[in-house]
Specification:
Elements (H helix, E strand, L loop, with lengths): L5 H17 L9 H8 L3 H14 L2 E2 L7 E2 L10 H13 L10 H7 L4 H13 E2 L1 E6 L2 E6 L11 E2 L23
Antiparallel strand pairs: 1-2, 3-6, 4-5
Helix pairs in contact: 1-2, 1-3, 2-3, 4-6
Length: about 180
């Protein structure tokens, strides 16, 4: 079995993230061969990096459509129903302002791994429904507290670098490159 070395894949992901950040939203990404040339990686490594960025919610790789860069407040196509459910729970008061979002409970309820739950939370962070707080046990997501007169909301993030410090994960306890 021919697998990608974690170190090589991490480097390919970092290089691809740097290229993706420069591309506009709402347009198709260039072909994988072009991305490989731009990142000075092999096509195989670039494909692996694209799968990682898809898993993190930075891009969406649909089955029969072009690959797209996702906006920070845009749900991955596979997560739209769950993002809508959590957003409705916040708006209805089921998840109260200022309290931790029960990500573990939600992940268990929907049979999701931590990384997928982080991808679900990413657009809610970008839209200001959630805020990320650093705590002694690591980062934790809280339901945002509305601020009167602040039209953007307290947690709005225009472009948070594809959350690269947390490998795209709002729930990761370790920054990228430390694992």
């Amino acid at each position: 079995m021919n697998t990608l070395a974690p170190k090589d894949l991490a480097a390919a992901c970092a290089a691809l993230r740097a290229v993706v950040r420069q591309l506009p939203y709402d347009t198709a990404l260039p072909p994988v061969e072009d991305l490989a040339r731009r990142t000075a990686q092999t096509v195989k490594l670039t494909r692996g990096a694209m799968r990682e960025l898809d898993a993190d919610g930075d891009i969406a790789i649909p089955r029969r459509a072009p690959v797209q860069r996702l906006r920070p407040d845009e749900a991955h196509p596979k997560d739209q129903d769950l993002v809508r459910e959590v957003r409705e729970g916040i708006l209805s008061g089921s998840y109260r302002s200022g309290t931790p979002l029960p990500t573990g409970l939600l992940a268990r309820r929907h049979n999701l791994e931590t990384r997928r739950m982080a991808r679900v939370c990413r657009p809610l962070l970008g839209a200001g429904f959630l805020v990320l707080r650093d705590e002694s046990g690591g980062p934790r997501l809280y339901v945002a507290v509305p601020v009167p007169g602040d039209g953007d909301g307290p947690g709005l993030i225009r472009d948070y670098g594809l959350i690269s410090e947390h490998r795209g994960s709002a729930l990761s306890a370790e920054p990228a490159g430390t694992a």
